[in-house]
């Protein structure tokens, strides 16, 4: 067995049924342990995202960037090609019903993302530059009673995250952009690579404050642009929506089912639908992988639970909103199950492009290409911060971070111009392996999360709700 086969075997395990069951199981356990508070308080969480922070609370808040910028940085890394390509792949391999399982995984993922972010803020530290350093590795280091186990898990998580940042957060994204732009506009990949590398240098060398500012602009813009265009496609194809939705729910829970009509010739069992839906859902929103809480730890906040609620909305926006929109575009287009010129079933980006073109013609393909470019570039920015903070945990010397930033930007060019499958498989495996120490940490420290959750509810959330009601009366 060669190195490539070993990596492939590891990859199949970390994104296979056992791992997906652990991810879902942890989400279910945390939801029950937290007495469904992440679900009950979702409205409060969404309101918090769009409410300007009270400047009078500034003194009691410590952090590098605003809670909104922290969420946007996490969303920058989370909303990526998975929302365009991943949904299409899931709906081909798992049938239209995979979308329902993506929703279910996201609902329990709310609790996972909440818990990750609470622990990241609670156990964060201040580094030599006076910046916040936090994430699962610091929760393991500072939260575990058994220091040896905590430090070992923290080391493994940081190592996996650093390696994964170069592949899943960088090369694969740069390659997606360069390939899409070449296919739609005929731009050579080396030109796209140079432009991407230059833009990455401009933003990344400024650190988290620069990434946070850019993410605060680019993420809302790209999400609104994509969602509005997708809604236009859905409106144009509206007569197919009832049949599409019926097929989505029928195939999600049928032991064996074949999609007819808008679903073409897709055949999938309930278990296949569940497997691909949960896998693509987790891959898209990253709940349980431990990446997003690294950005949460940089936020200015007066309580870990407040940032936990704000950051968990990332799962809601990513999967319940953006992935659903993509799924409905595909389900209503009639493109699912169709074949391309070579007789192969349309999949991934090509399927999403065909779905958009069904309503908008050639311009639909250009819109998907622009969407992929924006989504993937924002992922490059968000994952740089994850990798940087993970490396900072492993190597304390500040020069290591500077070298990492420069190397990361150079690798963007390599990713845009080269398809190194073994590198992608290795980073994909590392991305999944991050989840193992993170899930252990979430389960071990679930009592701490619950305590923070209920304490925030009693001392902050209920008084704030009462104050808001009094204000409305006046």
UniProtKB/TrEMBL annotation:
Main location: membrane
Gene Ontology CC terms, in alphabetical order: plasma membrane
Membrane topology: Multi-pass membrane protein
Transmembrane segments: 12-32, 149-169, 189-208, 215-236, 248-271, 316-339, 359-383, 403-424, 430-450
UniProt keywords, alphabetically: Cell membrane, Membrane, Symport, Transmembrane, Transmembrane helix, Transport
Example of a GO MF term: amino acid:sodium symporter activity
One protein family per Pfam: Na_Ala_symp
Stated family: Belongs to the alanine or glycine:cation symporter (AGCS) (TC 2.A.25) family.
Protein name (database record): Sodium:alanine symporter family protein
């Amino acid at each position: 067995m060669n190195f490539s086969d070993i990596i492939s075997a590891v990859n199949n395990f970390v994104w296979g049924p056992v791992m997906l069951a652990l991810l879902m199981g942890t989400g279910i356990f945390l939801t029950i342990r937290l007495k469904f508070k992440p679900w009950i308080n979702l409205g409060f969480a969404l309101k918090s995202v769009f409410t300007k922070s009270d400047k009078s609370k500034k003194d009691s808040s410590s952090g590098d960037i605003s809670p909104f910028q922290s969420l946007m940085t996490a969303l920058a890394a989370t909303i990526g090609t998975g929302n365009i390509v991943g949904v299409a792949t899931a709906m081909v391999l798992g049938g239209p019903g995979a979308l329902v399982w993506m929703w279910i995984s996201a609902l329990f993922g709310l609790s996972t993302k909440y818990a990750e972010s609470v622990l990241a803020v609670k156990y964060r530290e201040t580094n030599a530059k006076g910046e916040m350093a936090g994430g699962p590795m610091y929760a393991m280091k500072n939260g575990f009673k058994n220091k040896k186990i905590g430090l070992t898990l923290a080391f493994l998580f940081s190592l996996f995250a650093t390696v994964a940042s170069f592949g899943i957060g960088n090369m694969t994204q740069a390659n997606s952009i360069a390939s899409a732009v070449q296919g739609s506009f005929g731009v050579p990949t080396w030109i796209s690579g140079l432009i991407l590398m230059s833009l990455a240098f401009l933003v990344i060398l400024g650190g988290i404050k620069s990434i946070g500012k850019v993410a605060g602009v680019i993420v809302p813009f790209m999400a609104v642009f994509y969602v509005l265009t997708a809604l236009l496609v859905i409106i144009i194809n509206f007569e197919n929506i009832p049949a599409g939705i019926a097929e989505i729910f029928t195939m999600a829970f049928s032991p064996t089912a074949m999609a007819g009509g808008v679903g073409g010739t897709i055949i999938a069992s309930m278990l296949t639908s569940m497997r691909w839906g949960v896998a693509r859902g987790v891959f898209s929103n990253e709940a349980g992988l431990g990446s997003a809480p690294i950005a949460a730890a940089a936020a200015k906040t007066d309580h870990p639970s407040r940032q936990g609620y704000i950051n968990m909305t990332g799962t809601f926006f990513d999967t319940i909103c953006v992935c659903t929109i993509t799924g409905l575009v595909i389900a209503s287009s009639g493109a699912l199950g169709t074949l391309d010129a070579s007789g192969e079933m349309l999949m991934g980006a090509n399927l999403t492009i065909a779905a958009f073109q069904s309503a908008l013609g050639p311009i639909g393909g250009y819109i998907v290409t622009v969407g992929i470019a924006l989504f993937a570039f924002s992922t490059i920015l968000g994952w740089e911060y994850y990798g940087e903070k993970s490396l900072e945990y492993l190597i304390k010397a500040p020069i290591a971070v500077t070298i990492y930033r420069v190397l990361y930007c150079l690798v963007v060019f390599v990713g845009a111009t080269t398809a190194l499958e073994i590198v992608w498989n290795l980073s994909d495996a590392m991305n999944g392996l991050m989840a193992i120490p993170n899930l252990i940490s979430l389960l071990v420290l679930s009592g701490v999360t619950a305590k923070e959750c209920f304490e925030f509810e009693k001392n902050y959330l209920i008084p704030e709700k009462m104050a808001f009601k009094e204000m409305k009366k006046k």
